Amino acid sequence: NVQVQVVTDAGFLSPVEVERYVTYPVETVMGGLPAVEEVRSVSKFGISVVTIVFEEGTDIYWARQLVTERITMVSADIPPGYGTPQLGPLATALGEILQFEVRGKDYTPMQLRTMLEWEIAPRLREVQGVTEINTHGGFYKTFEVQPNPDRLNSYGISLGELFQRIQENNSIAGGGYVVHNQEQRFIRGQALLKDQHDIENIFVRNDKNSTPILVRDVAEVKIAPMTRQGAVTRDGRGEAVTGLVMMLIGENSREVVADAKKRLEEIEKTLPQGVTLEITYDRSSLISRTLRTVLTNLVEGGALVIIVLLVMLGSFRAGLIVALAIPLSMLFATNLMAATGITASLMSLGAIDFGLIVDSSVIMVENCIRRLSMNQSGKPFLTVIRDAAIEVRKPTMFGELIISVVYLPILALQGTEGKLFRPMALTVLFALAGSLVLSLTLMPALASLALPKKMSEKEIFLIRWVKWLYRPMVSWTIRRPWLTVAVALLVFIISLPVGWNLGAEFMPRLEEGDLLVEAVRLPSATIEGSVEMSTQIEKVLIGYPEVKTVFCKTGRPEIANDVMGVHQTDVWVILKPQAEWPHPKTRDELIEEMSDELNQKVPGVAFGFTQPIEMRVDELV
């Protein structure tokens, strides 16, 4: 659906205060926007996320403009220092397309994080189709002023005065210009703080003897990490610094990933010696595998259908004519897909059935062969082909329409299920439409060019054998119609319990090639304890020969689409290709082994196994 998020960093407020002073005002002002279906929110320690869901079909940029205008209004209702509402990234929950780690042997996590924030991320944001670079892990560099209460009291300086002096001395000002010897010289007032020494030298006030009192006289200034609500670890070696590339909504993920990887290679060459960028998760590999699987299945399925046609029709020419319907119908469908904005994917192409595509063409060509073999009166060749085409025109059209009607209810689906399954139904309908048009136009034309004027209808052994079995069976059922109907009803009734016990799922599971383990501790867990737990989990999982790398993302980053607490950890298990696994086993067997070992070696944690994209889809649904 079309949704806009408003994210507010509320400092160190508790969830109750965040809900009362930040979330509630934002929710109230957003509820009256036009075309809004739902407003929901999450309030946690230090952060508020309000999600505004708009009606289907609403222009996302128009929606964000409306929300931006309301943010300006609501900012005045939030107490000073309680945070400023900001728009979330212009991306979907499935926009996490590329993750990478910034590594440097001789650099601290804080230095690597600073490098990612100020050198790497700005250049990655320039890539077409990238909406945000989400930094996670490491320590955010800050200058921390620790006042000395005794010295403040001795000088009679309050905390508010100290805070005000530091704030006032971190700015710039313009002083116009002066004219000197017919030259115009600009006056610049520069007072931006650059390092801790600048902060230490800020003037606070004069003492009784008119001696300047500086910040260093009443406080200690040092570099310290900002209080954080998230961390990243990898492969059991400790904390890591990662960047997450988020794709702009509506962009092509394969193209954006390729451009982002190319830019990462360029950036890596300009970084200090010893600093490298290592990709940990790449969505394009899954897309390539999926498309390769779809294309392989299409080619293999098409080849099998062509072989069956060549054998069953008893004529190489006729089989070749019908086989042409497959690529031409697919070309017809892909043109309509391009015109309607449907991309080639597992959902759009996976439901195409070549048997349905060639059905009408088989009927048309087979009837032409039958008519030619029965032409004893010496009718002109083209007349026979024309009569054969006209004879099966109505049955062919009705057959295709009946099949098409089955897919029409799918087009009425709304919401998430509609977005997932409508492209599939439309693609099948496009292919069926192309098949029908080709069977009524191209097939008769090709038959008139390729089929011989005099030919006999041949039946292969398989057809003769099927007829030999079918004739007595049909005769028996015709003589006993009520018994036949009764047996059919009995079989139907017996099959009903089987259908009830089959179970159901929203959509078939896609094997992504990687695993994601959701690890949850008690809500009172600390960030330090979660980091220690993550390291233990990584040491267990990295020992499996099927695993390529493991990294854990605990809590939330600064730009949070999903508000996770420090007691929640997503464990990304990147697997090697199954062909490289040393021991033959299924993914389910591997998951069972991992689950048993984790429960034994990491007690007090609830584990749930899923996949990266599957987790996001489940959250959306």
Describe the structure.
The structure is a single chain. This protein is an alpha+beta fold. It folds into 5 domains: 2-87, Alpha-Beta Plaits, CATH 3.30.70; 96-136 and 235-286, 2-Layer Sandwich (Alpha-Beta Plaits); 142-173 and 187-225, Multidrug efflux transporter AcrB TolC docking domain, DN and DC subdomains; 315-458, Multidrug efflux transporter AcrB transmembrane domain (Multidrug efflux transporter AcrB transmembrane fold), CATH 1.20.1640.10; 514-620, Alpha-Beta Plaits. Helices cover 50% and strands 21% of the residues. It is built from 22 helices and 19 strands. The strands form 6 sheets. Strands 13-17-18-16-19 form a 5-stranded antiparallel β-sheet. Strands 2-3-1-4 form a 4-stranded antiparallel β-sheet. A 4-stranded antiparallel β-sheet has the order 6-14-5-15. The protein is elongated, with a radius of gyration of 35 Å.
Summarize the structure.
This protein is 50% helix and 21% strand.
Give the key terms.
621 residues; alpha+beta; Alpha-Beta Plaits; Multidrug efflux transporter AcrB TolC docking domain, DN and DC subdomains; 5 domains; 5-stranded antiparallel beta sheet; 22 helices; elongated
> Mind telling me the CATH superfamily name of the largest domain?
Multidrug efflux transporter AcrB transmembrane domain
The portion of residues forming beta strands comes to: 15-25%
Extract low-pLDDT stretches: none
Secondary-structure-derived class:
alpha+beta
CA-based gyration radius: 35 Å
Largest sheet features: 5 strands, antiparallel
Q: Given the structure, what is the number of helices? A: 22
Output the strand order for the largest sheet: 13-17-18-16-19
User: How many strands?
Assistant: 19
Mean pLDDT: 87
**How does the overall form come out from the CA principal axes?**
elongated
CATH architecture of the largest domain: Up-down Bundle
In CATH, the topology of the largest domain is named: Multidrug efflux transporter AcrB transmembrane fold
Measure the end-to-end span: 11 Å
Tell me the count of domains.
5
CATH class of the largest domain: Mainly Alpha
Helix % is 40-55%
